[in-house]
Design goal:
115 residues; mainly alpha; 2 strands; binds iron/sulfur cluster
Length: 115
């Protein structure tokens, strides 16, 4: 079979393009599997309060913050005051006090998202 220059060039470019698409597909699938789920949060501790001031810890206590919600329907991740984790961070935050917050935690100020 005789290939002309254009045909060889086309095959080479097609191979590169296909390789690029497959490479991107692999990259995207790797990224999507790195997304966080509630289980990921559950496994990692958001209870390191070493960088949190005493006054902020007092607020946390005042609102009866608990790291594991006693009512599974009232968790921090479903609270209007929850601040989702920033990229490359594990723990979320709360608008009421500073420091890490568990997505599955809760407190007496829990407020539904749609209210
Ligand atoms: S207000 Fe309470 S339930 Fe809501 S995010 Fe803050 S700590 Fe969690």
């Amino acid at each position: 079979m005789k290939f002309t220059y254009k045909r060889r060039q086309f095959i080479r470019q097609s191979t590169y393009t296909l390789g690029s698409i497959l490479g991107l597909e692999f990259l995207f699938s790797a990224c999507s599997s790195a997304e966080k789920s509630s289980d990921d949060y559950q496994l990692k501790s958001c209870q390191d309060y070493s960088q949190v001031s005493e006054s902020e810890l007092a607020k946390r206590k005042q609102f009866a913050y608990e790291t594991q919600a006693s009512d599974p329907l009232k968790t921090c991740k479903d609270c209007k005051l929850f601040l989702p984790a920033m990229p490359n961070e594990t723990c979320g935050g709360c608008s009421l006090f500073k420091g890490p917050v568990e997505v599955l935690g809760s407190c007496t100020y829990w407020a539904p998202l749609e209210a």
